[in-house]
Write a structure and sequence with these properties.
alpha/beta, Beta-carbonic Anhydrase, Chain A, two-stranded antiparallel ribbon, 9 strands, 47% helix, binds zinc ion
């Protein structure tokens, strides 16, 4: 009786499984080959998708290997991992499977607070990213926010094309196309398509760093650390790009202070008031000549 009820319920919520017929249920549940052509958003053809239960066997087997090797290096690793979450870095990167955050930074689990999406975007209406940013800045108090793009990015290539990829992907890609519009003179002047793609990736990362600076949560925290007398305003924001063809992670040289006027006049929400300046003057000794320079709104990428 219980089996009959369970089967009825199952078929009710899985009508497509019922339509497939018993003979095809095995394929429906993930064993076999899906012959449909697979194409990336950038138009690249992929081999047919094959599914096998060994796919998951591999996941758990590798988990055991990783767990054992980690314990061999540090027998207390998971005791610490299970009780503390104090990363210095927040990483905003692309969802691309080749750009493994901890692997390319050489960091263990627990060191990096991560948010990833298609083409490492910082979109002002993306409550997913903004929630992660708020948590990372307000609660974890990360010192560094890294926006990391990568060359050979399918999301960037899709935005470079004139294809309508359908919603919601096309809506997302529109944000990337807006970056191209801002820099179209520079990008259109690059005749080599690969060089243009790489520069587009660089410029997109810099624009997304600017979007990080434009958020209230980051501005508020930077003002707090400034008022507290930290040597640098925190969190610092860094533009980086990963090249999957070489494994190299590089920092993009960008002087964010060149945008200071735009940032403070249009986007600034936590500028210093006269009262703040009086508090600073009253509480802080005069800076030494060789003291590190710090700016409230933006600084050169560190
Ligand atoms: Zn990508």
């Amino acid at each position: 009786m219980k089996i009959a009820v369970a089967l009825t319920l199952f078929l009710a919520v899985q009508p497509s499984a019922a339509l497939l017929g018993i003979g095809k249920l095995r394929k429906y549940f993930g064993k076999g080959t899906m012959p449909q052509p697979r194409v990336t958003a950038g138009g690249k053809k992929l081999p047919p998708l094959t599914l096998d239960n060994k796919d998951l066997d591999r996941v758990f087997a590798k988990n055991q290997i990783w767990k054992a090797s980690t314990l061999a290096k540090d027998k207390d690793f998971f005791k610490k991992l299970g009780t503390t979450h104090t990363p210095d870095y927040m990483y905003i990167g692309c969802s691309d499977a080749r750009v493994d955050t901890n692997m390319i930074m050489g960091e263990d689990a627990g060191a990096v607070f991560v948010h990833r999406n298609v083409a490492n975007m910082v979109v002002n209406t993306d409550t997913n990213l903004l929630s992660a940013l708020q948590y990372g800045v307000d609660y974890l108090k990360v010192k560094h926010i890294i926006v990391c793009g990568h060359y050979e990015c399918g999301g960037m290539r899709a935005a470079e094309s004139s294809v309508d990829h359908g919603a919601p992907l096309s809506i997302w890609l529109r944000n990337i196309r807006d970056v191209y519009r801002i820099h179209k003179d520079e990008l259109n002047a690059i005749t080599d398509p690969e060089a243009r793609h790489r520069r587009f990736v660089d410029l997109n990362v810099i624009e997304q760093c600017m979007n990080v600076f434009r958020t209230g949560v980051v501005q508020k925290r930077r003002k707090e650390t400034f008022m507290a007398g930290e040597p640098f305003c925190l969190p610092q924001v860094h533009a980086m790009v990963f090249d999957p063809k070489t494994g190299e992670l590089k920092r993009l040289e960008c002087d964010f202070s060149q945008y200071e006027e735009e940032m403070s006049q249009i986007y600034g929400m936590y500028q210093l008031s006269e009262e703040d300046k009086a508090v600073i003057a009253a509480n802080k000794p005069a800076p030494k000549k060789d003291a590190p320079k710090k700016e409230l709104v933006a600084e050169t990428a560190e």
